[in-house]
From TrEMBL:
<feature type="binding site">
    <location>
        <begin position="57"/>
        <end position="60"/>
    </location>
    <ligand>
        <name>substrate</name>
    </ligand>
</feature>
<feature type="binding site">
    <location>
        <position position="203"/>
    </location>
    <ligand>
        <name>ATP</name>
    </ligand>
</feature>
<comment type="subunit">
    <text>Monomer.</text>
</comment>
<comment type="similarity">
    <text>Belongs to the phosphoglycerate kinase family.</text>
</comment>
<keyword id="KW-0963">Cytoplasm</keyword>
<feature type="binding site">
    <location>
        <begin position="351"/>
        <end position="354"/>
    </location>
    <ligand>
        <name>ATP</name>
    </ligand>
</feature>
<dbReference type="InterPro" id="IPR001576">
    <property type="entry name" value="Phosphoglycerate_kinase"/>
</dbReference>
<feature type="binding site">
    <location>
        <position position="294"/>
    </location>
    <ligand>
        <name>ATP</name>
    </ligand>
</feature>
<feature type="binding site">
    <location>
        <position position="116"/>
    </location>
    <ligand>
        <name>substrate</name>
    </ligand>
</feature>
<keyword id="KW-0324">Glycolysis</keyword>
<feature type="binding site">
    <location>
        <position position="153"/>
    </location>
    <ligand>
        <name>substrate</name>
    </ligand>
</feature>
<dbReference type="InterPro" id="IPR015824">
    <property type="entry name" value="Phosphoglycerate_kinase_N"/>
</dbReference>
<dbReference type="InterPro" id="IPR036043">
    <property type="entry name" value="Phosphoglycerate_kinase_sf"/>
</dbReference>
<feature type="binding site">
    <location>
        <begin position="19"/>
        <end position="21"/>
    </location>
    <ligand>
        <name>substrate</name>
    </ligand>
</feature>
<comment type="pathway">
    <text>Carbohydrate degradation; glycolysis; pyruvate from D-glyceraldehyde 3-phosphate: step 2/5.</text>
</comment>
<protein>
    <recommendedName>
        <fullName>Phosphoglycerate kinase</fullName>
        <ecNumber>2.7.2.3</ecNumber>
    </recommendedName>
</protein>
<feature type="binding site">
    <location>
        <position position="325"/>
    </location>
    <ligand>
        <name>ATP</name>
    </ligand>
</feature>
C-alpha cells in the first residue's frame, strides 16, 4: 500500500473520498466530529501542493436529490475549520464539474454534492458503478481514500474508483485500521467489549465472532431486551426481535462454553412511553410491567459494567446503553463513557451513535484512546468480513 507520506501530489489534482456524514438538525450540524477527523489528510495534501476534489455522502438519499441531505452546510463548516475557502458545487458530474475541477490551482478545494444523489454510486450493477467511477476519475490524477465510515460498502467512489487511478489510504483510514488490528491481532488482555444500540440483528455477527476472543462482554441498549426474553423474562413493551430469541439463546450458551463473562443488565430504567418527558422508574430486570418499556440500563448494571471495563486493558464500545438523547435516560451511557476514560490500556469508541453520545454528554475526544468514525465499518471488520474499500486500497 502506498502511504500518504510517500505520495507525490505536488501540482496534481487529488480525488479525496471523505466521510462527512454528519448529523443535521434543521440544516444545522450537531456534531462535526467526522469533518474534524478529515482535516489531517486534507491539510497534508494541501501542504504537499495538491488541489483537491472532495466527494462524500450524507444520509441515505437512495439515488434521489434531497435538499435536506445536501452537503452545502458541510462545505461552510469545512471552510471554517480549514480557515480557507471551499468551493461547493451542487452537482457530482457534468461539464461544469469537470471545468471547475480542471481549473483548480494548487491549494484549492472543490466539494462535490452528496455522492449518493447519484443512483450509480450505490448500484449493485457493476457496469453502472464503473460508468460513474470513470467520470469521476477524469476529475483527478490520484485517488486518496479517507472515508472509513464507507469502506464496508461496494460503492463507486469507494471500491471502483481507486482501481482507475494511482491510489493511497488517507491518514484517517490508516489510523482506523491500525487501531482495529490492536483489537483483533493479539489484543492486550483482559479484553472487554460493550455493545448497545437498538437491534441485536445489527450485531449478531460481531457478537458471535468476538465471543471466542474476548474475556468480558456487556450487553446494553435496546438489544438487551432480546437477551432478557431469551432468558425467559418479561420485557413489557420494550423493543425486541422475537425471531432472534433462539439465536440469542445460542449466543448465551456460546459465552458459557467459551468462558466469556457475559454481562446482561439486572436493573432497568423503564417508562410508559418513548418520550423525553416520560416518567422514569427503576425496576429489576425480571420485574418489567407489561405496559412499560425499558429505555436505559439501571445504576446497578451500569456500575457492574464500569467495574468490568476498568479491569480491562483493551476495551471496544459500540452502541449507547439507553436513549441518551433523552436526559432522563442517558445515565447508563454516561457511566460507560466515564469508565472508558479510566481504562489504563486502549479504549476504542466504535463510531456512529457512540461517538455522538460521548460528545453530547460532555466528553472530549482526547479522553478516550480512540474514537472511530465508522460504526458499521468497525463492526464488520471485527466480525472478520472483508471490507471492499480497504481491499481497493490494498489494505
Amino acid at each position: 500500500m502506498t502511504s500518504l507520506v510517500d505520495l507525490d501530489v505536488a501540482g496534481k489534482r487529488v480525488f479525496l473520498r471523505c466521510d462527512l456524514n454528519v448529523p443535521l438538525k434543521e440544516s444545522k450540524i450537531t456534531d462535526d466530529g467526522r469533518i474534524r477527523a478529515s482535516l489531517p489528510t486534507i491539510n497534508a495534501l494541501l501542504e504537499k501542493g495538491a488541489s483537491i476534489v472532495i466527494a462524500a455522502h450524507l444520509g441515505r438519499p437512495k439515488g434521489e436529490v434531497k435538499p435536506e441531505l445536501s452537503l452545502a452546510p458541510v462545505a461552510v463548516r469545512l471552510a471554517e475549520l480549514l480557515g480557507k475557502p471551499v468551493q461547493f458545487i451542487p452537482a457530482i458530474t457534468g461539464a461544469d464539474v469537470t471545468a471547475k475541477a480542471q481549473a483548480l490551482a494548487p491549494g484549492e478545494i472543490l466539494l462535490l454534492e452528496n455522492i449518493r444523489f447519484a443512483s450509480a454510486e450505490t448500484s449493485k450493477d457493476e457496469s453502472e458503478r464503473l460508468a460513474l467511477a470513470t467520470e469521476l476519475a477524469n476529475l483527478a490524477d490520484i485517488y486518496v481514500g479517507d472515508g472509513f465510515g464507507a469502506v464496508h460498502r461496494k460503492h463507486a467512489s469507494v471500491f471502483d474508483l481507486p482501481k482507475l487511478l494511482p491510489h493511497a489510504a488517507g491518514t484517517l483510514v490508516a489510523a482506523e485500521v491500525e487501531v482495529l488490528k490492536k483489537l483483533t491481532v493479539d489484543p492486550v488482555r483482559p479484553y472487554g467489549v460493550v455493545l448497545g444500540g437498538s437491534k441485536v440483528s445489527d450485531k449478531i455477527g460481531v457478537i458471535a465472532n468476538l465471543l471466542g476472543k474476548v474475556d468480558v462482554m456487556a450487553i446494553g441498549g435496546g438489544m438487551l431486551f432480546t437477551f432478557l426474553a431469551a432468558q425467559g423474562k418479561e420485557i413489557g413493551t420494550s423493543l425486541v426481535e422475537v425471531e432472534l430469541i433462539d439465536t440469542v439463546k445460542g449466543l448465551i450458551k456460546q459465552a458459557e462454553d467459551s468462558g466469556v463473562k457475559l454481562l446482561i443488565p439486572t436493573d432497568i430504567v423503564i417508562a410508559p412511553t418513548f418520550s423525553a418527558d416520560a416518567t422514569p422508574t427503576l425496576v429489576s430486570s425480571d420485574a418489567i410491567p407489561n405496559n412499560q418499556m425499558g429505555l436505559d440500563i439501571g445504576p446497578e448494571s451500569a456500575a457492574a459494567f464500569a467495574a468490568a471495563i476498568k479491569g480491562c486493558k483493551t476495551v471496544f464500545w459500540n452502541g449507547p446503553m439507553g436513549v441518551f438523547e433523552f436526559p432522563k435516560f442517558a445515565a447508563g451511557t454516561k457511566v460507560i463513557a466515564q469508565a472508558l476514560t479510566e481504562v489504563s490500556g486502549i479504549s476504542v469508541v466504535g463510531g456512529g451513535d457512540s461517538a455522538a453520545a460521548v460528545r453530547a454528554l460532555g466528553f472530549d475526544d482526547f479522553q478516550f484512546g480512540y474514537i472511530s468514525t465508522g460504526g458499521g465499518a468497525s463492526l464488520e471488520y471485527l466480525e472478520g468480513k472483508e471490507l471492499p474499500g480497504l481491499t481497493a486500497l490494498d489494505l
